[in-house]
Amino acid sequence: MTISVERLERWVAAIFRAEGLCEEHAGTVAKVLVFANLRGMDTHGVLRVPSYVRFIRVGDLNPRPAMVVRNETAACVLLEADRAAGPVAMQKAMELATDRARQAGAGVCLVRATTHTGALGYYTHMAAERGMAAIAFSSSTANMAYHGARAAGVSTAPLALAVPGEHGPIALDMASSIVSMGKLRQAKRSGTPLEEGQALDKDGNPTLDAEAAAILLPLGGAKGSGLSLLIECMTSLIAGNPLLAEALERTALGARHRQNGTVIALDLGRFVDPQEFRRQAGRLARAIKALPPQPGMEILIPGERGARTAEQRRRAGIPVPDAVLEELRNLMEEPA
Amino acid sequence: MTISVERLERWVAAIFRAEGLCEEHAGTVAKVLVFANLRGMDTHGVLRVPSYVRFIRVGDLNPRPAMVVRNETAACVLLEADRAAGPVAMQKAMELATDRARQAGAGVCLVRATTHTGALGYYTHMAAERGMAAIAFSSSTANMAYHGARAAGVSTAPLALAVPGEHGPIALDMASSIVSMGKLRQAKRSGTPLEEGQALDKDGNPTLDAEAAAILLPLGGAKGSGLSLLIECMTSLIAGNPLLAEALERTALGARHRQNGTVIALDLGRFVDPQEFRRQAGRLARAIKALPPQPGMEILIPGERGARTAEQRRRAGIPVPDAVLEELRNLMEEPA
């Protein structure tokens, strides 16, 4: 079934209001999740709603967070997120970082103690639309093998980068694993076999069976797991809220759902005329797209496929699988 | 033959002084190149000396640059590098970024118009030793396939991240290609065959023959080439000195050797007690190293192998292949 963007956002917002989020926060969570669907990243879309609701009910996600800003410097700030929903904390963080960047040229916001951040690309995209170059990364619990290990040691920590382009942002949002946890879940549901080098089973042996897959493999071996480890250091350790060490030492805290994030905004207008930047971004995109393609391949600029899908889905509605729809309906009907 | 660090640095510095660099700049170039050898990244070490000398002689590298700082804001600065040797410009850039970070919490320095930056890890390592979390990336000309293309469209743009660790920095320095251009050159010299998915020949066909390999393949397909494209945007386009578009449009400027870079420093002491950060970094490293290993694999923290090699080579000297030694000797003897 396909559902219009507005309707899907209304449904999701209603679910989160019923779970105790204020109207503004429920709207933000709905917007960030539906943004992912809109751009074709369905693994980060509304199918996450039931898990977000579960986080609320077990007390990992605080529906009424008292978010506090501290450690303010000219270019930096730490947002104490009080277990806010990831979209609520991360959107606030990018606003804080872009505000700093307007003043100081660059702005950094560390986010301490949030939950699943949703599609990180939402926040960098938002900054790029405000004329900023933006970087975001976030850390989560151990679900990816550390290079050389038979066990999960790091998270699939995503890295997102975006800049303004000639027709909307040039935007990359990548996991540090070869496939994301969302894509693995999708393969499990659909029974699609994995490709070689994507995952290990629970005992640390390579597997092509999505059902048996338990541990994702890092992008480029030591590169992906090294990147993820550094992201943990640059989010969780600076924010004073370690995730991986707690998980690996199997502490009580380590078993909870927790995330930290870092966003960086750079006011490119301090260096270059923003119009000229967009013109040059367009020139670069055209030069790349003019390259001779491999047979059967289309050359796409980061963010191009998402923008195309968004245009189509904004018109035709968002396809939501029956199983997901059923879960949303149940959540809307049942008393919180 | 193995040569002591001090002697190798002296030789390299003498070569660059003879090419017209001032004593300080020649020393910086020598230090950065020998650092790479010291840590086992021989592809970015003194074997680059002849190409740097060539850059000077054809006028791409300015031995007496008039570097100028402009676009100063509380957290940012642009270094107009005037075609300075990469190590000279990038070291200066990281100093400027860490100075800003001490004041503003975070500091960003864009480097406009430099040359081969050497091992980017040198600069992030330097910042980490000063208690900073640091990120650096740089863009170069098209030598890597854009995902889906049969031709080079982007550079093997490296990304380096470092934070202080318990016993020296935790430091990652990765190319956005599967193998670096330096490693490809090494394979060409030694005649070692490549692995599948690493490179294309000049016509855009996959090849395992290092000799025939002309175009590197991006790490993780669209991820690596997207990262490289975003790095070009976040260095060259913000600094107003496009590299890739010029190269792809085959302009006269596009044929010159040129690089741009961006460095970011974050004063982590503004958020967390630096001692506690190091303690937590050590705790995390221990938890990772305690994971069960894959058969025959050792679990290494980013920077650990380099630190180990450095300790060994500082004692025993740096092994320099005869061919490289011969080139260095010729350069020392011939009149500039």
Structural descriptors:
336 residues; two-stranded antiparallel sheet; 19% strand; 11 helices; homodimer; Ribosomal Protein S8, Chain: A, domain 1
Describe the structure in your own words.
The structure is a homodimer of 336-residue chains. The first copy, chain A, is of the alpha+beta class and 336 residues long. Chain A has two domains: 1-64 and 303-336, Hypothetical Oxidoreductase Yiak, Chain: A, domain 1, CATH 1.10.1530.10; 68-177 and 218-290, Malate/L-lactate/L-sulpholactate dehydrogenase, NADPH binding domain (Ribosomal Protein S8, Chain: A, domain 1), CATH 3.30.1370.60. In chain A, 41% of the residues lie in helices and 19% in strands. The first copy, chain A, has eleven helices and 13 strands. Chain A has a seven-stranded mixed β-sheet with strand order 2-3-4-12-5-8-9, sandwiched between helices. A two-stranded antiparallel sheet of chain A has the order 1-13. A two-stranded antiparallel sheet of chain A has the order 6-7. In chain A, strand 8 and strand 9 form a beta hairpin. In chain A, helix 1 packs across helix 2 (23-38) and helix 2 crosses helix 4 (86-104). Chain A is globular and about 50 Å long. The first copy, chain A, starts with a strand and ends with a helix. The model of chain A has no long low-confidence stretch (mean pLDDT 96). At the A-B interface, helix 4, strand 4, strand 8, strand 9 and helix 7 of A face helix 4, strand 4, strand 8, strand 9 and helix 7 of B.
